[in-house]
């Protein structure tokens, strides 16, 4: 046996090729114990095609295929084009709420023009896209201090939002972070509000 065949045999053993051929009845292992980075790409075997994991990048690539894109656009357009209104919640009387009509007008104005560059539809189409593609639609809300426009809304790439696993439930501590490049490049959030 040559060096090439020996190295190939060792590599296949490490990658789990022999383990995959094991018999379940005999109790042989069928998985590789090494990280996938060390195993060569096997591709699909006859009748078995392995699918990539649904990472945000893979989901976004998949969302650009014609059939999936059409389905996303149909749902997104129907939701984004729906008529909406601001009303006093059921169970409350407009007459009993102080300045109810003025507050509803301010809220409607803020939602119609959530920031200086987006309309309601533009903002929510971005959020719905992320929501439908990967389940991670995210909006940032920032207080302005202006009583006529108390907040701004911006669409955020939801794939960059991470949950702080060490959060202990304290609302004063950050719960989420937006990964923008390494630990130093993180923006921390308190339960939906920026810190």
Strand content: 15-25%
> What is the radius of gyration?
26 Å
List low-confidence stretches: none
Strand order in the sheet with the most strands: 3-4-5-6
**Portion of residues in helices?**
25-40%
How far the N terminus sits from the C terminus, by CA atoms, comes to 65 Å
What is the general shape?
Answer: elongated
Order of helices and strands: HHHHHHEEEEEE
Main beta sheet:
4 strands, antiparallel
- Structural class, please? alpha+beta
Mean pLDDT: 79
In total, the number of strands is 6
Number of helices: 6
What is the element layout, followed by pairings?
Blueprint: H1 3-15, H2 17-20, H3 56-63, H4 66-80, H5 100-112, H6 120-134, E1 138-146, E2 149-156, E3 161-163, E4 176-179, E5 186-190, E6 193-194
Antiparallel strand pairs: 1-2, 3-4, 4-5, 5-6
Helix pairs in contact: 4-6
Structural features, described:
The structure is a single chain. It is built from 6 helices and 6 strands; from the N terminus they run ααααααββββββ. Helix 4 (66-80) packs across helix 6 (120-134). The chain has a 4-stranded antiparallel sheet, with no helix packed on it. The chain has a two-stranded antiparallel ribbon with strand order 1-2. It has helices spanning 3-15, 17-20, 56-63, 66-80, 100-112, 120-134; strands at 138-146, 149-156, 161-163, 176-179, 186-190, 193-194. The chain folds into 2 domains: 3-38, no CATH class; 56-163, no CATH class.
Put the structure in a nutshell.
The chain folds into 2 domains: 3-38, no CATH class; 56-163, no CATH class. The protein has 6 helices and 6 strands. The chain has helices at residues 3-15, 17-20, 56-63, 66-80, 100-112, 120-134; strands at residues 138-146, 149-156, 161-163, 176-179, 186-190, 193-194.
């Amino acid at each position: 046996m040559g060096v090439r065949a020996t190295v190939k045999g060792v590599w296949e053993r490490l990658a789990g090729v022999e383990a995959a051929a094991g018999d379940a009845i005999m109790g042989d292992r069928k998985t590789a114990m090494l990280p996938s980075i060390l195993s060569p790409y096997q591709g699909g075997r006859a009748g078995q095609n392995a699918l990539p994991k649904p990472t945000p990048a893979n989901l976004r690539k998949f969302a650009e295929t014609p059939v999936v894109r059409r389905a996303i656009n149909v749902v997104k357009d129907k939701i984004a084009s729906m008529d909406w209104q601001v009303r006093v919640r059921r169970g409350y009387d407009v007459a009993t709420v102080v300045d109810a009509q003025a507050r509803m007008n301010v809220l409607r104005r803020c939602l119609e023009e959530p920031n200086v560059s987006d309309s309601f539809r533009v903002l929510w189409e971005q959020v719905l896209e992320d929501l439908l593609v990967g389940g991670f639609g995210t909006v940032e809300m920032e207080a302005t201090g202006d009583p006529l426009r108390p907040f701004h809304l911006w669409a955020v790439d939801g794939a960059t939002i991470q949950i702080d696993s060490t959060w202990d439930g304290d609302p004063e501590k950050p719960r989420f972070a937006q990964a923008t490049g390494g630990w130093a490049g993180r923006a921390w959030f308190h339960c939906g509000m920026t810190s």
